[in-house]
Amino acid sequence: MLLAELVATSAAVAATRSRKAKVVALAELLGRVGPDELEVVVSYLGGALRQRRTGLGWRGVSDLPPPADEPSLSVLDVHEAFEAMSRISGPGSQQARRSAVEDLFGRATAAEQAWLRAVVTGNIRQGALDAVTQEAVAQVAGVPLAAVRRAAMLAGSTVAAAGAAFAGEEALAGIGLEVGRPVMPMLASSAPDVATAMAGLSPDGATEVAIDAKLDGIRIQVHRDGDDVLVVTRSLDDITTRLPEVVEVARSLPAERFVLDGEALALSDDGRPLAFQDTASRTAQDTGVAVTPHFFDLLHVDGQDLLDSPGHERLAALDALVPERHRVRRLVTADAAAADSFAAETVAAGHEGVVLKDLSAPYAAGRRGSAWVKVKPVHTLDLVVLAVEWGSGRREGWLSNIHLGARDDASPTGFVMLGKTFKGMTDETLAWQTERFTELAVSPTTIRDSYVVEVRPEQVVEIAFDGLQRSTRYPGGVALRFARVVRYRDDKGPAEADTIETVRGHVAG
Ligand SMILES: Nc1ncnc2c1ncn2[C@@H]1O[C@H](COP(=O)(O)OP(=O)(O)OP(=O)(O)O)[C@@H](O)[C@H]1O
User: What spacing in Å lies between the alpha carbon of 262 and ligand 1's midpoint?
Assistant: First the structure.
C-alpha cells in the first residue's frame, strides 16, 4: 500500500465530522491492506509510529528537502526507514539521522511530508480516532465491535486487537489479561457531591459502597512477574526506571505474579501529600523527593485473573497482598452521612477528593463508567490551549497568557474558547510552555512577529476555576471566572478534553 493512500484517508477522516463517514473511509482503506502491512497501517492511522524512539524531534524535521512530485513511498518503506533510524547510535549519529531524514522526506510528496512531520513530532493524536478505527476493523474483519474494543483495552492497543481481529473471532477472544502487558486503566465518571454519588451507587440506601481517598499523584499500573517489574502511566508509558521505590515495594509483596492499579504520590515528612508538581517533577528528574505507591485495585494475582470479579473480591485480594501503608485509605459503608464525613476528612488531610466504587462491578478496562464516581470539592476542567500571548514586564520573552478551549462538535474547529489565564504558572511552567507552544505554533516562522500566537489545539491543560459567568465576548456564551493552571496534562490527548456540554453542566451544578 502506498503511503499516499493512507495520507489521503487520514485527511478525509479529519475533514468530516460525521462518524459514519469516518468509519466508511477507514474501512475502505483497511479492506485493501495486506496482512504484513496491517499493524503498521493501523498504528499510522492512530498517528503513531511502530518505533518507540526514532531519535528525531521537532528540530530534526524542521528543515526538509523539496518534496517529490509523485507519490512512490509504500507504507512498509516508511516503516523500514524509521526502523533503521531507531537503530542509529554512537558517534556520527546526528549526521546519519540527518541523511536518513533527507532520503525519506525527499521521496515524499508535500502532503506526505506534512503527515510524516506531524507523526514524528507526535502531533497527530489518536483518542477518538482509535474508537473509529476499531469500528472499521470490526466491519472489515467481520467480527463484533464489542470484541474488538475489549481486546484493545486488554492488550492496551488497537494495533494488537486489529491483528487478532483479522485472525478471527477466536483469536480475538483469546486476548486476555497478560502479566507484563499493560491494560487500559479503568476511569471514573463524576458527581457534584458525595450524596449524589451515594444515591447513584446505593439507590436503596442499604447497599454498601467503597469510598477511596482520591490521591493527586501519578496513576500507576504495576506488573510483577518474578523479579521483573513494569510500571506504566495512565497512557501506558513505561516509567519503571524513574520510580525505583515503586519497584522495590512491588518486589517486597508476598506473591510472584500480579497486576496492581494505584497512584504514586510524594509525601512530606509528616505524611501529607505534596503538591502534584512535586510528584510530577520527581518523574521528570531526580529531585530527591521520595514517591510512595498507594494501590486501590488488583487485577491479577498468582494465576488468578480478577478483572471480571466483583469489586469486593478484588479488594479482599488487594488487602491480603498489600500492607495498609501502601493502600489508599478506604471506607466501606451504606451510610451517606458516614461517607460524607470520610470525604471531608480526606480533603482536610490534603487530598483531592474521593472516588466512590460499586462493590459488585468488574474492572472495566479503558472505560469511564458509573461503577467509579469521583467527587472533588475544587472544580477543574481539562481544556485545550488554542493560542498563547507573549508576556510583558517580568514575563517579557515568555509565552504567557493562554487561551482556553473546550471541545465543541458544533464548531468548525472542534473547539470553543472559554477564556484566558496567566495564573498558576511558575517560572518553570513559563519556560516549558514557551518551548512547547513554539513547537505547536501554526506558523512557526512568524511566531515572534505576532502578539497572539495561534497553536495547533493539541495541548491539554487542567484548569481550576471559581465559577462560570455568562459572556457575550466568547462564542460559547460562557466564560470561566478566575481560571488558573493546575498542571499541564501529557497523559491526555485533546480528544479526552472536556466538552462545552460538561462546562455548561457546571453552571447548573
Ligand atoms: N482511589 C482511587 N481510585 C481510582 N482512581 C484514583 C484514586 N485516587 C486517585 N485516582 C486517580 O483519579 C483518576 C480517576 O479520575 P478520571 O477517571 O476522571 O481520570 P482523570 O480524568 O485523569 O481524572 P482527574 O482529571 O480527575 O484527575 C485516576 O486516573 C487516578 O489517577
Answer: 9
Q: State the average pLDDT over residues 446-455.
A: 88
Quick one: which of 353, 217, 352 has its CA closest to 277?
A: 217
Residue 375 has pLDDT above 50, yes or no: yes
Query: All 3 cell numbers of residue 210?
Result: 467503597
> For residue 333, is pLDDT > 80?
yes
- Ligand 1 pocket, mutate which of 184, 186, 187 (most atoms under 8 A from CB): 187
H runs (alpha helix) in 88-183: 93-106, 110-120, 128-141, 145-155, 158-167, 169-173
Q: Is the pLDDT of residue 37 over 50?
A: yes
Question: Residue 218 C-alpha to ligand 1 middle, in angstroms?
Answer: 9
Binding-site residues, ligand 1, Cβ < 6 A? 187-188, 212, 214-215, 219, 234, 263, 296, 328, 355, 368, 374, 382
C-alpha cell recorded at residue 379: 472544580
The three cell numbers of residue 106 are 525527499
- Rounded-to-integer distance, Cα 186 and Cα 454, Å: 34
Mean residue pLDDT across the chain = 90
Does pTM surpass 0.80? no
Q: Which helix (H) or strand (E) holds 212?
A: strand 209-214
In a mutational test of the pocket of ligand 1, which residue from 183, 190, 218, 219 has the highest number of ligand atoms less than 8 Å from its CB? 219
Q: Are the C-beta atoms of 135 and 108 separated by less than 8 Å?
A: no
Per-residue pLDDT, averaged over 141-168, amounts to: 93
> Is residue 210 within 8 Å of 310, Cβ to Cβ?
no
Percent of the chain scoring above 90 in pLDDT: 67
- Whole-number pLDDT of residue 509: 42
The pLDDT, as a whole number, for residue 128 is 61
Give the residue among 323, 327, 325, 320 at the shortest CA–CA distance from 304: 320
51 by Cβ neighbours in 10 Å (0-12 / 13-18 / 19+) ranks as middle
Q: Which atom of ligand 1 is nearest to the CA of 216?
A: 9
Per-residue pLDDT band for 279 (boundaries 50, 70, 90) equals low
Buried b (16+ CB within 10 A) or exposed e, 279-303: bebbbeeeeeeebbbbbbbbbbbee
Whether residue 444 has pLDDT greater than 50: yes
Taking CA atoms, 25 is separated from 12, 142, 338, 374, 412, in Å, by: 7, 16, 53, 37, 20
pLDDT(406) > 50: yes
Active site residues: 214
pLDDT of residue 391: 94
Across the range 298-314, mean pLDDT stands at 97
- Measure 214 CA to ligand 1 centroid, in angstroms: 7
Are 503 and 476 spatial neighbours (Cβ–Cβ below 8 Å)?
Answer: yes
CA of 234 to the centre of ligand 1 (A): 9
Interatomic CA distance for residues 168 and 35, integer angstroms = 13
DSSP of 169-180? HHHHHT---BTT
